[in-house]
């Protein structure tokens, strides 16, 4: 199988989306020249080119693309070539209305934006694959092309009849017969029993709360059917260019697809990440996305999209200070990225994203923004030795999509409990404690980790439960968050309200969930929010934090910790740092100030100062700072500065 | 006619919804054993069993239900048997799409939840009644069955063509010809005149504000058509089991149906009530629901559903402290309940309500929650002598559904003025003043009440107006809230902006409505909110409260009081207590502290301490406390404690 | 062409909408009598009378209307006769469902409210014009009728197939061929290229952000197609009564139609204005609407609707103090109104607007509200000499609808930046500085203005840019707000991110937009909000205000000012007053206190005290106050008082 290394070949890829179809051909030569001046190595081409490549059904207008690829190749710019299947041309929807997605309320969504395709539509798939086939045949061996980029941020959902048919097939495979389906969905509740497959389908608009197991299975199906679309394209591409790695781009904490399942089918795992410059914890969110993507990739990965400055889809789109651009780039490399690509090369003058920043902004090259881009293009080659190396992490964080889909349904104890903020809170506590973490699927091999943390695993399969128990039995430390182990993989509440094996492991029995609607005081200072529980502690279970009224907030049973609430950041950090310390897991550098990030990758130590204060810290020995090419025995960082240190 | 007494037979019913179809048959025996241990007398069975009873069209699978009823009967548990017509099986919607309700925007709502039926659908009714017929024939004389429970929380609304047809029939009956309809709806406004019955129908999605009289009539129709569904089922049941009383369950302040009209057709009136444990005024809301249900029943009633602890349909679902569970149960008995049933017996492991608490929680019997349930099961029989007795009340509160439907439309003076919070504010003031109130329909006989209060009666029929005038003429005291008597029963503004008879009675003429968008100061302290009016006072009308700027806030004209605003709780309490006192209406006990509730029912005085402080109060003579079986000359209540006193 | 002067004939029109069809015929005579007593000159009749005039298709029931007009004429009340085409009868929607508008989601909107018509529907137009034809024939020469009022507040939007067809025709005219359309819409972005006209249509519900140029063109089309409806009716009316002026009523800051284009087709321009009595800046909003309407009219105009007190369509509808009613009326006259009409004469007892105040309120004539109406009716004739005269203004404010439609789309830098609040902020600053302004289309003749201000002109056509440049070249002063000159008239970003000619003129180049999500401090005190920019200043550009961090907030380059943010009111007032002063533009009176408005119209000076304090100010010479008929050498105003001064 081809891999990212076949594309990087010792360089950190640098570049971004390039949409030449938006520009007159005379601009292309200027683009190539400016890319070279900016140190760009790689352009992602063709993500939204379907209508240009196939302006009428069956047409193939590939000449312009060939000219673009030739020009880029002549200029020394490599290409990540995209299949344009994320945005069909208007004619497809007109010719086959069934390719247009339908909402749960029955509204058919139209062209005029993007993403207007039903993943179950045979018509869509046929047209998409025919074009991919011809694209691959035409360009799969073009010397500029070094990677395939399939579709874009997979996510469309449809509720049409054709979707219902595929969903039924999927359900037959998962559950077997109708009786098993009724059992798995608990249709005895509210008289929802199906006596025929013909009444089984996606959850449609209904008078009241939907069946949660149906919703859960539909979300599983939606992810699987998108994965089918991906693998179908991938297989075509592989036939034509077996040596080119294939990727598709994820987003941070993206709920639509199970990224574990997708990653398993990709040669390269890549991420689109847009931390909000207005978010004081943007670095935590970025780190989480990077750590999760690296974990899914099982090694180096590609930042496929990021923003040079502002995006255009938030309410208020803050510009990104230029020093943050560099820090974010180095942070991605530190956490395993071997490629840094931006959306997009040249700011669009038209269309829905014309206010999205770009490597080449509207105001042109003579701007602080573009100068920062060029500086980054000069700096990245200094770090070339990091390419292909591993990031050092002894902590694993459990994260799971079906759990997410089950947890955040309607009709649950508290709609204040969402998985993404929980995951961010836990990741932030680890980040604050200067601990680097991998992410793991709940059923994944945990043997290489001393400490496993589970922010939440409401839905825990039997194998997941046994996996955690085995980790503890091996002497591993476990910290589990509240409302974990409550349901099995069909979202059926486990007897007793929490899996018995986990109750034994953690030494607790939650007798009643008591969600909080505001922060509550903890004994000894600090607060906790979101949740509390009436908890029965087993013998030998120690209460390590409690609410002001005496209710347990955190417990320890041997090496197994349970958090019955979400403590405020400082308290959560202390609890996790304590568990890590006891498990023998320590920061990469002692004495790091708050807001200074240190990550070890390969033989290098990346230290990033996210604060506005300078940092001075003695090192244990002499190091070379690759960014300055100077040797030093101390860490010296300017405000928002960075160092990449190699021990000498 | 059978009545509740035929079912209670001297006991307070205790139990709840029991859904054996959600459990394997081996669980049933355990359920019966645990019910007995918990003191359960009554199980409501079959509320959502349609799909299990009729898995395919026309099938009759009654065997399992017979086994359940037999088992319960052997265990000494009586059954309130439900018709399962609130949630049709999926096959009904597939076979007859016209049974599925349609929103005003034209979206058809599907199965997969519950309540997916159009009350006007002949297909729905035919299938529902056929099943009810067979159920009644099969189980109407089963020895376990002691009451019928029809459907569940009637409320579905539909906007389909079949609904339009029935609505036209209803309108023809109400208004006669098309000219009268046009007149009643004021269709001269905005060119809405109908020249043919075919254009008359439910209010559908429209560009701007709908016709308010059309909306009002449609809501009346929706209530009536649901009542038709109820009486059709009731009549079938009566044919088969003339000795069993029939009920359907209301909810507190439930806007969908006119509960006065429904109550008139029921043998037993019952209530589902879920005060929010997070609401500091939950006891007021509970009392209001209980008083209204008792008034609709004209005597004892049944609490058909309540929660042992948290529900699952709020944003944050707070658990209920165990002492509150007992207080709420005793409060219901004090205010007339002869039955206390919970949703549900055993917590569901699947489905949309698996996080709703139950008598038997997920965590099992060895929990504080279940122990509190058992304690209640032991305590209720101590109060058996209260069964069948009346509650003592000399105050009547006027409440009316058409008024509600007219008041809360779009395009009115203030969308901050809603009837439910107004009703709660007035009920809270009476509760704070330790006064027990009945509820009355505005046209009901008022002769037994010294004091009649009208939180709001924006829409007042001529008979309602005359009823209030007659009450005053008889020497009764009246306290009327703002924006009362404004419209007639077709929501036509009365000449002068307020009915002339009421203007004479109250001695006021509101010249202009001046809604408030924030509380305003009253002269002499306190605030008022929601409303003010430019008011002309007739000669002899006294201003008893005013705003800081001198505008009248409350007036008195003889025994007729008018409140031109909503005073803050303490002020409203003072005003109502003053009017009551002058009318000779006093609390059941003198000197009661705030938050302590005293209600006289039959020969017993229930005293409930809703505060966290102990209460000590001398009594006028020796009493026996039924809960402790001790005699005492003083009231001694622990925090959240209760006493049920019989004078000796 | 007939003009407003043909209707006013030396009088200020006074009256309002009169809907006799809502009342029994016996009320009509009382209405005429009470109108006379109130000084009413003019009644607008028939705005919503379609169903009464044509109760079934093709019928003509004109008798009642003739009787009404005769009665009014006999009573000396003149009539502004309306075409009733804003609210078709129910039968039209039933007969031709295609006349009912369809939302972007595909929901068809029904009758039962008003406005349920598709402007593109040939069926609608045919029925509407046939009725207008017959109305004009029947009443175009009735002696009571002095003006035509077409339709009402044009605004309906539809997304149906017939609309799509007309939209395509419109696009062909605007853009020519499909290639030009694709170019203009930037369909290369996101693969939106149309290869056939059949896929071109209105923006329908889609999965993500729509094409902004498509949205912009659709809004242009919607305005144009409504204008087609207007001119079609107007042409019919002109044929029958060439001497009667024709109007239709706008609303303040109404986004649906381009009022410049509409005004050009009207004989009389008129305005419906409903400033919120709860808004402390209501006088500014009123002034803006009046100034804009006057500018569109190019002279005197008519206030076609205003409220005597509360409206009924806000959340909380505040009553209007009677002194405000008079001030608002005089303000309209001061700013060019030659007619003051109210919605409506007599408060409706039924329908969706029965809580809207009226000249004759529900509570009748013996009310402060009606007494204030009569006082106004007595006062207006004192000002008759102002009729037909011009308002004195040396400042022009640029305002443009396509800019509005382009600016407020999804996916832009900040959704906090809306044009209406921006326009109000700038108008408020001018008002605070006691400067009277006209409004101008960006391509209009600017030669008569010393100072031109541009709150925002994000979308600026080449002609608009050249117009502003020419103004400056002539020595005029310009003050331009942030984010101006960014896009061309197809919403394509101009090279460099701001038009080069404007960059040269203003001496600035915005390098990056940095929208604010909260107010930021300015150096030297005060704050600014909404926006900031990284700005490069050309040589000779002076920074006249800056943020606390040194970033430019306002600059001056010769006489061209640029505001890179929205300063708080006091700062914006100071900046604009400074620019005005330097340009030789001064208030009508020196030394005016805050909140006192002085406007010169014809030979009269209107001075309005919007504060609760009395005003005393010496005048430069003796004046006669027309309101008191007294001579004075000083301005003396009671709280909320007014004076209309003629120099002697």
Automatic annotation (TrEMBL), chains A, B, C:
Enumerate the spans annotated as Glycoside hydrolase family 42 N-terminal domain: 17-380
Reaction catalysis annotation? Hydrolysis of terminal non-reducing beta-D-galactose residues in beta-D-galactosides
Supply the InterPro entries for this chain: Beta_galactosidase_C, Beta_galactosidase_Trimer, Class_I_gatase-like, GH, Glyco_hydro_42, Glyco_hydro_42_N, Glyco_hydro_b
E.C. number: 3.2.1.23
Domain Beta-galactosidase trimerisation: residue ranges: 393-585
Does the record bear Hydrolase in its keywords?
A: yes
The Beta-galactosidase C-terminal domain extends over 595-646
Q: Which UniProt keywords apply?
A: Glycosidase, Hydrolase
Indicate whether Hydrolase appears among the record's keywords. yes
Q: Where do the TM regions start and end?
A: none
For this protein, the record's Pfam families field holds: Glyco_hydro_42 (PF02449), Glyco_hydro_42C (PF08533), Glyco_hydro_42M (PF08532)
What family, per the record? Belongs to the glycosyl hydrolase 42 family.
This one is known as Beta-galactosidase
Source organism per entry reads Kitasatospora arboriphila
């Amino acid at each position: 199988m081809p891999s990212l290394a076949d594309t990087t070949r010792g360089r950190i890829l640098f570049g971004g989306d390039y949409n030449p179809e938006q520009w007159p051909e005379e601009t292309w030569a200027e683009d190539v020249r400016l890319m070279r001046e900016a140190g760009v190595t790689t352009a992602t081409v063709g993500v939204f080119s379907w209508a240009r490549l196939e302006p009428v059904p069956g047409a193939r207008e590939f000449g312009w693309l060939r000219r673009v690829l030739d020009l880029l190749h002549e200029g020394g710019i490599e290409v990540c070539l995209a299949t344009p299947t994320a945005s069909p041309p208007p004619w497809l929807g007109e010719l086959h209305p069934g390719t247009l997605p339908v909402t749960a309320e029955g509204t058919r969504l139209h062209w005029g934006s993007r993403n207007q395709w039903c993943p179950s539509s045979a018509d869509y798939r046929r047209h998409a694959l025919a074009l991919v086939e011809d694209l691959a045949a035409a360009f799969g061996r073009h010397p500029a092309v070094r990677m395939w980029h399939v579709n874009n941020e997979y996510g469309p959902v449809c509720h049409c009849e054709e979707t219902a048919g595929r969903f039924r097939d999927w359900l037959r495979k998962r559950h077997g017969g109708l009786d098993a389906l009724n059992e798995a969905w608990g249709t005895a509740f509210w008289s929802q029993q199906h006596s025929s497959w013909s009444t089984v389908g996606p959850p449609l608009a209904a008078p009241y709360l939907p069946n949660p197991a149906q919703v859960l299975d539909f979300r599983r199906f939606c992810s699987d059917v998108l994965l089918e679309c991906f693998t179908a394209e991938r297989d075509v591409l592989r036939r034509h260019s077996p040596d080119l790695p294939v990727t598709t781009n994820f987003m941070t904490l993206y709920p639509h697809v199970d990224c574990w399942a997708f990653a398993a089918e990709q040669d390269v795992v890549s991420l689109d990440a847009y931390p909000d410059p207005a978010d004081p914890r943007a670095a935590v969110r970025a780190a989480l996305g990077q750590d999760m993507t690296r974990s899914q990739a099982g090694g180096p990965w590609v930042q496929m999209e990021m923003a040079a400055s502002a995006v255009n889809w938030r309410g208020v789109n803050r510009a990104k200070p230029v020093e943050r651009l560099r820090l974010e780039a180095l942070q991605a490399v530190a956490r395993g990225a071997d490629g840094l690509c931006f959306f997009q090369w040249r700011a669009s003058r038209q269309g829905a994203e014309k206010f999205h920043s770009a490597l080449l902004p509207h105001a042109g090259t003579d701007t602080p923004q573009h100068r920062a881009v060029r500086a980054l293009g000069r700096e990245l080659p200094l770090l070339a030795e990091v390419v292909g190396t591993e990031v050092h992490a002894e902590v694993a964080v459990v994260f799971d999509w079906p759990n997410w889909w089950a947890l955040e349904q309607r009709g649950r104890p508290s709609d204040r409990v969402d998985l993404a903020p929980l995951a961010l809170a836990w990741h932030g506590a680890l980040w604050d404690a200067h601990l680097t973490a991998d992410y793991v699927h709940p059923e994944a091999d945990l043997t290489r980790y001393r400490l496993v943390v589970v922010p939440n695993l409401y839905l825990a399969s039997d194998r997941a439960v046994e996996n955690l128990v085995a980790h503890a039995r091996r002497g591993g430390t476990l910290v589990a968050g509240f409302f974990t182990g409550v349901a099995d993989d069909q979202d059926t509440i486990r007897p007793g309200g929490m899996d018995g094996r986990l109750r034994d492991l953690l030494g607790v029995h939650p007798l009643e969930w008591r969600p909080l609607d505001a922060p509550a005081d903890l004994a000894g200072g600090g607060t906790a929010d979101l949740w509390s529980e009436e908890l029965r502690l087993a013998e030998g279970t120690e209460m390590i934090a409690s609410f002001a009224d005496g209710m347990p907030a955190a417990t320890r049973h041997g090496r197994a910790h349970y958090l019955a609430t979400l403590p405020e950041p400082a308290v959560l950090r202390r609890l996790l740092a304590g568990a890590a310390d006891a498990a023998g897991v320590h920061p990469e550098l002692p004495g790091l100030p708050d807001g200074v990030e240190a990550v070890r990758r390969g033989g290098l130590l990346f230290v990033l100062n996210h604060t506005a204060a300078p940092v001075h810290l003695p090192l244990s020995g002499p190091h070379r700072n690759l960014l300055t090419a100077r040797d030093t025995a101390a860490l010296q960082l300017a405000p928002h500065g960075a160092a990449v240190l190699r021990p000498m």
